[in-house]
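User: We ran a pulldown and think these components assemble together. Before we commit to crystallization trials, I'd like a predicted model of the whole complex to look at. Sequences follow.
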Amino acid sequence: MEVIVHKYGGTSVGTPEKIKNVARRVKKTRDAGYEAVVIVSAMGHTTDELIDLMHKVSNNPDPREYDMLVSTGEQVSAALLAMALQGLGCPAVSLTGGQAGVVTEDIYKKARIKEIKLDRLKKELKAGKVVVVTGFQGIDSRGDIITIGRGGSDTSAVAIAAALKAQVCDIYTDVDGVYTTDPRIVPAARKLKYISYEEMLELASLGAQVLHPRSVECASIYDMVIHLRSSQNETEGTYIMSPERISEEGGKMEKKEAVRGIALDENIAKIGILKVPDQPGTAAELFGALAAEKINVDMIVQSIHSAGTQADMAFTVDRPDLKRAVEVTERAARQLRAENVVSDSDVCKVSLVGIGMVSQPGTASKMFAALAEEKINIQMISTSEIKISCVVKAEQGKKAVQVLHKAFGLDKVA
Amino acid sequence: MEVIVHKYGGTSVGTPEKIKNVARRVKKTRDAGYEAVVIVSAMGHTTDELIDLMHKVSNNPDPREYDMLVSTGEQVSAALLAMALQGLGCPAVSLTGGQAGVVTEDIYKKARIKEIKLDRLKKELKAGKVVVVTGFQGIDSRGDIITIGRGGSDTSAVAIAAALKAQVCDIYTDVDGVYTTDPRIVPAARKLKYISYEEMLELASLGAQVLHPRSVECASIYDMVIHLRSSQNETEGTYIMSPERISEEGGKMEKKEAVRGIALDENIAKIGILKVPDQPGTAAELFGALAAEKINVDMIVQSIHSAGTQADMAFTVDRPDLKRAVEVTERAARQLRAENVVSDSDVCKVSLVGIGMVSQPGTASKMFAALAEEKINIQMISTSEIKISCVVKAEQGKKAVQVLHKAFGLDKVA
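Assistant: Here's a predicted model for the assembly, 828 residues in total across the polymer chains.
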């Protein structure tokens, strides 16, 4: 029997009524003759509520205990969904990440999945049950509960789908699919029928937060098709797959625009380390120290200072990590004999994404011109083959997205 | 190093502030040079809230999923307490029942603990950590999460204390200790300094709900001293121990009253099965069927019917089990060709308890006389060597306790 993997986010299982809706949807899949595995997030704002509770008890919570605490959210929703399925006459069982064989690295809060031991999962499927698995978590070699980072339920779903060799991983969420940009910022934004892993990865990691970046990375490694769609209706969403598969879809394929989407990331902060004596190993020293503290660094820009023997470096981090990142950077700065460290959390990042950009020169200059025309000052620039990102003042982010969406003709139907 | 086992109930960990208070108390124990293991219940009304949520999703929840769901409550409080301890500079780690090696029978919702595998627990203690263990749960041979019945955290605590060969198991709750009866019913009720396992067992199973009966049973098997005390102050509570140990305490020992305590159980219902043809195996058939459905039967009274060839049987069950119990009894009644089945949930049970009763005749008649004087009609009577129970109308329960407390002089200081 073919296996279908569904994933439902926190909004889709936010109330008992919504959980029953999900159960009806899953049952339909099973009645159509498929085996079904369902990965669930915690209900609604449960995780945030648990974190609030945590902050009332501790100023500096231990990552191990954090995992122990927040992993309960998914366990609640998984058990409730299994019960709801049983209530519809559909045999079901819920499994924790550990019970489902999701083995992670021995790192709290941000571990990667190492392997999926399918024994129990396959046994339950063989017994005719829908298997509901807690997303966002697994178990490590010590038997400890490990979470795999906020939004990690998407990754859980893709990893389990890949291990089970499912044809597609349906990720249900509260949006219809991937849009050219956030429709709340640009009402004329269009839904994309297909998007490549690479493009999605850039969009997701750049703040189009419909899908966890690591889930896309995992999907691309295993060539797993993700169908991102709404849990509120039966409409097709957006298929995320390799460019090869997209080409195979032939006539259905959209015209290849240079720019496929625009993302806004408002959760960043900028750090500058100024007048660093220019010598080999400087960057390695600084970013090694940040990595050791598990601080995610995104854009990195280095320029030669006018004096010629010193460099300025700037980079962005997630805004909640700013305080820790500044501390680490200041320590590194003292060691590197840099002049000083500056930081600014009043910034955001606007990015253009599109595989086609690589073959269409002039995208960058067109972007800079469009922003300049609106008097939007660019603080940092970083480019790759399929994206261009600019850091601008926080309050100008939305305006920048609107301007660029229009300038690159994304509001026109392809 | 000597190990001290503490257990804190839901009220004692009901808010972040209370959790921090518990942490301070535990730290004091550790600073005094003891190893400490702490067993916690779920915060406040968490378990009830989870069960409410469950009823919104399912009319007939699967016991396995029930365990998966409600076990999260203790996991939350254990993680929070570990964080609070760390916040005080006290190394700590939280363990789920499974991680702490609490192995149970393969039965959901009401399993018994089979053994405690101490490896992880001892390793963490050796590493200098306070170990916080989720009460009320363990893991079975299939790796499933198993709960051990409402109030089972007391049992978890005693079992772990016994396995660790602790000197005493401190059970902290929102009352000061064991009283001669419920002080809300009889303001003159006195706190007992010592009480034997047997007496406590009768009081606990009869509705004095300060301690889970199975925890007392477990303590008596392993001769573990339970110190039942308040989490709000440092006052000594009541020691629950064997009569031998109580005697050893010598001068401190209280005068042996015939009646040590009076309990009121308002959570019962009565079922009668009338005119059962009187033949061997009848009782076995009926109570076997009830046991198969995991319905707890308490008092059982059988009398010969006037006709001589038929018997009437009556018994009590927990009030929430009444509907199911009546169904099972009616099925059994048809098979046994009994005349009919009657039930009544408008009843309660008043019990006198005391080891000394066995050597002081006349306690029963004195009880019946005291009740008769207040026009309290007795519907069922059952006696054992250390207790006498009467079922009376629900609305007369409190009055009966007051009358008996006075009649047996329990309000006088011994």
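The first strand of chain A starts at residue 3 and ends at 8. That may be worth checking against your pulldown data before setting up trials.

User: Thanks, that helps.
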